[in-house]
Write a structure and sequence with these properties.
2% strand; single chain; globular; 5 strands; 43 helices; 821 residues; mainly alpha
């Protein structure tokens, strides 16, 4: 297994000491998955879980993760549980499982059970009474049998006393136990993990033997457990609070594990205890270091409970508990807890840290609330230079990466934070500030190679990819249209994130890969990434409506305006509700392209001008981050607003040249040529330039931009009555859109082609990819309307495709298509 995963699993299983940074839950889950895969290479593996309903949440999550991804490996799951709501593991396995409902014991089976276990042989009418009242439940039948052994068998079956529920029966049994046996059962019930030698310290060996013989306890190797969880529950419910506290104190002395020792001491305490609070705080830190976030929350919670109100450590313990709650992922609880404790914290550092935690909590509905908390935290931290710098970097990152605003100010704040961290030798803060600075620099159109180098210099050998400038540098390649470099870089980062088990990093890098394919016209690749995304819960990791935004652009690329409008509406709704300006701007850009596809340049200008003006106002000089310029120029020229189109083109060119920006440089030439082709006489040089731009797009892998450029060229040539040139350009555009899998765009281009009197295809036998898809479905017997629905295009498009197919193949009906396919 990869060493990060193996170490995460070893730390989680207490087989090795934790490092400074605790293993992420995802790393542990990934390690379990790969452990199962490796074992399955040798022989089939069965994962068996008894009493699934009592399995802890972390184990359920890990097993669910593995079950969902184990794929074709010979790994089977054998699960047993009480009736009730299915767990996440069962829902994941749904459709691949065979469910066997365990029915009631028969009368004969109850007779054998009581005879073999208790030596009790009853008349048939007594057995019938037990079977009827217990509904054949073996545990219930055994408990009634034990009561009959103790009290004697009554002369008639009607005299057998049966409580309403089995828990009452077990409680009655526990209450009648000898004190020694009841004490041992309570010890095991409260500890959950006792060794036989430890139990012998609590009670004498004879009592232990009696408890085992009475069916209260079960010994497995050197471990002892209750014979049934309901017995343990009955023991706890029957014990008074004082008795339980006393037993926790006994258990604390018997257990050697430092965390369990501290936990039982806490459970034994009923009031403040400064020494115990310090012990619990240390134990919580140990649990956090091995990645046991829930254990850390419990221990830190007890540490705070036994801390006196005037203890100088109380503020630190409030913040310690808050951070463990944050790591556990319970953001709503985090918000509620920190908000309730905020007034108890002294002004300054402690309150500033709490405000930062509130800015990240689950009660936040809109990003403006986060900004308000961060600004308050910045004010509170004025006397603490490092904390102040950290909050300033957080604020700068929010402005740039979420709000897309105040870019110059964000850059200045981040630079100040980097300097403060470097001066103080605070490596962790410097790394965070460098990442914040990367966002501002990239959005200003500046390279960040120097920042990436410095980040590596001040980082450990393994750093968190999601929070590194390297990820942002990879996204910058996407913005610049450096397709192959971006693809190679993102594939490498994806593999690293997967190996390390960093879920947020993996989800973000998958987002950037999807963005890349959506820029390049790789619709199938983008769709595969989105389908993988939809099959996971990764949307919760990212929070913002990034998935919806990518689905919108996929529909745009396919030329499916109805689908695009659906996803655009969802993106806008969520982004406005959350204050996610980045997603809102991208949704408006997608809406502008859809309007162009629909032939509505006024609506296109409205959407695209909003995006363009925002980036100009906020000094986003990286024009590839929100690449609205070419579409805006196209819409403006449609409306005859040539001065504004020229101004957009001029800014695009001025920014592209010093940045040596591949996409922006080609796009500035595209815009200029498109404007020049509008006014008569026909400009041959502009037409040649636009054709050259299309070739340049193709060379760097931006095939969708190439096809769009050819469409623009063909339309301009048609308007200038250059029929032959227009036909050639539009036919190339159709072929390009068909090859990309963009039927909606191909349909629009064909409508342009029809206006220049396109030649009827000759019987060449060579079908385009789109024609082949249509022909295959037609040969399979689908009607034109069904084919149109399957391919998300109009019936007219299908009819046009089939007309071309018949002409190329020299056939007259769909019945003759099959032999050619």
């Amino acid at each position: 297994m990869p060493s990060p995963q193996r170490r995460a699993l070893e730390v989680a299983l207490l087989r090795t000491e934790p490092a400074d940074a605790p293993p992420e839950a995802h790393a542990i889950r990934l390690a379990l998955l790969n452990a199962l895969r490796e074992l399955a290479r040798l022989e089939p593996v069965v994962v068996a879980v008894d009493d699934l309903q009592w399995l802890d949440a972390s184990s359920v999550e890990s097993l669910t993760f593995a079950a969902d991804r184990v794929e074709a490996a010979p790994v089977a799951f054998l699960l047993a549980r009480r009736p009730g709501t299915p767990t996440a593991l069962e829902r994941t396995l749904d459709g691949r499982t065979e469910t066997v409902a365990v029915g009631p014991l028969s009368l004969g089976a109850i007779r054998r059970l009581l005879s073999e276990r208790l030596g009790l042989n009853l008349p048939r009418q007594h057995l019938r009474r037990i079977a009827d009242t217990t509904l054949g439940n073996p545990l219930f039948a055994l408990e009634i049998g034990r009561s009959l052994v103790e009290r004697g068998v009554p002369p008639t079956a009607d005299e057998i006393a049966v409580p309403e529920v089995v828990e009452d029966l077990l409680g009655t049994r526990v209450a009648r136990l000898p004190r020694g046996q009841r004490r041992l059962l309570l010890a095991v019930a409260l500890s959950g993990d006792l060794r036989l030698s430890q139990l012998a310290e609590i009670g004498d060996e004879l009592a232990v033997d009696d408890a085992v013989g009475a069916g209260l306890l079960v010994v497995e190797g050197d471990r002892v457990r209750p014979s049934h969880p309901l017995l343990a529950a009955a023991a706890r419910s029957r014990a008074r609070a004082r008795e339980q506290r006393a037993m926790h104190l006994v258990l604390a002395r018997a257990l050697g594990d430092s965390e369990l020792h501290a936990l039982h001491l806490a459970l034994a305490a009923d009031g403040p205890d400064p020494e115990l609070a310090a012990t619990l705080a240390v134990a919580a830190a140990g649990a956090g270091a091995r990645g046991a976030a829930q254990d850390a929350v419990v221990l830190a919670g007890h540490a705070l409970r036994v801390t006196t109100p005037d203890d100088p450590e109380r503020s630190d313990r409030v913040l310690q508990l808050a951070r463990y709650i944050e790591v556990s992922g319970d953001l709503k609880r985090l918000s509620a807890f920190v908000a309730g404790e905020l007034d108890s914290l002294p002004p300054g550092r402690a309150r500033a840290q709490a405000l930062v935690l509130l800015s990240e909590g689950g009660a936040i509905e809109h990003n403006d609330e986060s900004l308000d908390y961060l600004q308050l935290a910045l004010d509170e931290s004025a006397e603490d230079p490092l904390l102040h710098a950290s909050i300033a970097a957080e604020l700068a990152s929010n402005w740039a990466a979420i709000g897309v605003e105040r870019i110059r100010e964000a850059e200045a704040r981040a630079e100040e934070a980097v300097l403060a961290a470097r001066t103080a030798g605070a490596a962790e803060l410097e790394r965070f500030a460098l990442t914040s600075l990367s966002w501002a620099r990239c959005l200003r159109g500046c390279p960040i190679d120097d920042i990436c180098r410095r980040f590596v210099e001040v980082s450990d050998a393994v750093f968190y990819l999601a929070g590194s400038p390297e990820r942002i540098a990879a996204e910058r390649l996407v913005w610049r249209g450096e397709v192959e470099r971006a693809r190679t870089t993102l594939a490498r980062l994806r593999d690293v994130a997967d190996e390390r088990g960093e879920p947020v990093s993996y989800a973000l890098i998958r987002l950037h890969r999807c963005e890349l394919e959506l820029r390049a016209g790789g619709w199938d690749a983008a769709e595969a990434l989105l389908d993988e995304w939809a099959d996971t819960s990764d949307d919760e990791l990212l929070g913002w409506p990034m998935y919806e935004r990518c689905r919108a652009f996929l529909a745009v690329g396919r030329g499916d305006p109805n689908g695009a409008r659906h996803w655009i509406a969802l993106t806008l709704e969520r982004s406005r509700a959350m204050g996610a300006r980045w997603e809102e701007l991208e949704a408006r850009r997608a809406a502008g392209i859809v309007a162009l596809l629909d032939g509505d340049p006024e609506a296109a200008v409205e959407h695209l001008r909003t995006v363009w003006e925002h980036t100009v106002r906020e000094q986003v000089d990286e024009v590839g981050a929100f690449p609205a310029a070419t579409d805006l120029v196209e819409a403006l020229t449609e409306l005859g607003a040539l001065d504004e189109a020229a101004a957009v083109t001029d800014r695009l060119r001025r920014l592209a040249e010093p940045q040596e920006h591949p996409w922006a440089s080609a796009s500035a030439r595209r815009c200029a040529a498109s404007i020049a082709l509008l006014a008569p006489p026909y400009d041959d040089r502009a037409a040649a330039e636009l054709e050259a731009v299309a070739d340049d797009y193709a060379r760097v892998g931006l095939d969708f931009d190439r096809a769009r450029s050819l469409l623009s060229l063909g339309r301009a040539q048609r308007r200038m009555r250059k029929w032959g040139a227009a036909r050639q350009s539009l036919e190339h555009a159709v072929s390009s859109f068909d090859a990309l899998g963009s039927p909606g765009w191909a349909e629009r281009t064909r409508s342009e082609l029809e206006r220049v009197g396109a030649r009827r295809p000759q019987a060449t036998g060579e079908l385009t990819p789109a024609e082949r898809r249509v022909a295959k479905l037609a040969a399979d017997g689908l009607a034109n309307k069904e084919i149109a629905q399957a391919l998300h295009v109009t019936v007219n498009t299908i009819e046009a495709h089939l007309s071309h197919v018949y002409a190329k193949l020299g056939v007259r009906s769909r019945a003759r298509l099959a032999p050619f396919l």
